[in-house]
Amino acid sequence: MLLRQVSSWVYDTFLARPSQRKNIRQAARIRSTLREITGPYACARQLSYLRKVDPFAFEELLLTSFKACGYVIKRGVRYSGEGGVDGIIYNDKGKKILLQAKRYTGLVNPAHVREFVSKVDQCADWGYFIHTGSTGHSVYDILAGRNAQVISGENLLNLIVHSKEPDLKWS
Q: Strand pairing of 72-74 and 87-90?
């Protein structure tokens, strides 16, 4: 596990592509800005802010947030064209978890969730569909009994702002 963490740090520091390093730095600034948003309706204002950030920086923000929770992260070579997977993380038991990141302003598109769950079934132990929008009932129906779950709203903000690991609902 320690070897994975060291190799992850080496990659972030020296081997990441320039665009990845830029997005990693931008993700740190976003996280700092989110922590400064307090007071009434902070949660709503933080989610509104997240919906406006660069999508690649949002992906990096999620990866670095999971890293802060102790997961080992694996970045893709590029940000688009990766078959619906925006990141891969490994928990302390070595379980492979796929990430899909969406910055929605409205309801989650159930077709996106179906495609992601299919990908998880093919090549991972678990999956997180992470978004900034609203989760409709049809999405929960799609996820029922599957090896994936949604992270959104307050759970998303707890992950990013407070490095609070999401509760796993392992099936």
A: antiparallel
This prediction's pTM: 0.87
Please name which of 83, 90, 85 lies closest in space to residue 101, comparing C-alpha atoms: 85
At 171 the pLDDT is 41
Query: For 96, how many CA atoms within 13 A lie in the half-sphere containing its CB?
Result: 11
Element (H, E) at 99: strand 96-102
Predicted confidence (pLDDT) at residue 13 exceeds the cutoff of 90 = no
Q: Which residues contact 132 (CB under 8 A, 6 or more apart)?
A: 47, 50, 51, 102, 103, 104, 105, 152, 156
Pair 61, 75: CB distance under 8 Å: no
Evaluate if residue 119 carries a pLDDT over 60: yes
Cα(115)–Cα(71) distance, rounded to whole angstroms?
24
